[in-house]
Amino acid sequence: MWQLIIESVIALLLVIGGLAALTGAVGMLRFNDFYMRMHGPAMSSTVGIGAVILASIGFFWFHTGTFSAQELILMVLLMVTTPISAHLLTMSAMHMKLPRQSNTQGGPFEINEQIDQD
Amino acid sequence: MLSHYPIIHVAMWVTALLFSIAVCLNIYRILVGPSLPDRIAALDTLSVNAIGLILLIGIGTGSRYGFEAGLLITLFSFLTTAALCKYLLRGMIIE
Is B48's CB within 8 Å of A45's CB? Predict the structure, then answer.
């Protein structure tokens, strides 16, 4: 009984991680301009990898019987480096003055004067 | 080894399929991305999905040694992204 519950929780975490990674990739594929496309990788690198790492820790705890959370280093490293790289990418996109869609509101002043019309 | 845990076995293969589709979509964005920051962001996401696949291989074979490869991939993908963005911003990497 307990084995069934633990297995179900680990399987659910794995599938949640896969669905989050797929959602991030589809968002990166289907959004219209670069500034929208930067939303996808955040999803897949926090929720997707986080759920898979939790499932891995739980599986090896359940399989070997001893708890060791060495995969948490990976999660901490990803959560530190992902916002920095997203910030650098957006800064370089603003430096290259990439066009943005006309029906999005606000935006930085550097790219407000040249709006993509379609 | 995973035959003792049938639910995790099925879930591992389903998750591997989802991650593989995500990798294919990222490769499409790398190949036809309209601008250079698009391709760099797609490379970053591709390395993240590769770490997920490596963790899945670790679950499937029952060994935890793939985790260190994931650590290396994380560090090198961050270095690659930072260096390429520095190149786009300044025109050179080491001034």
Answer: yes
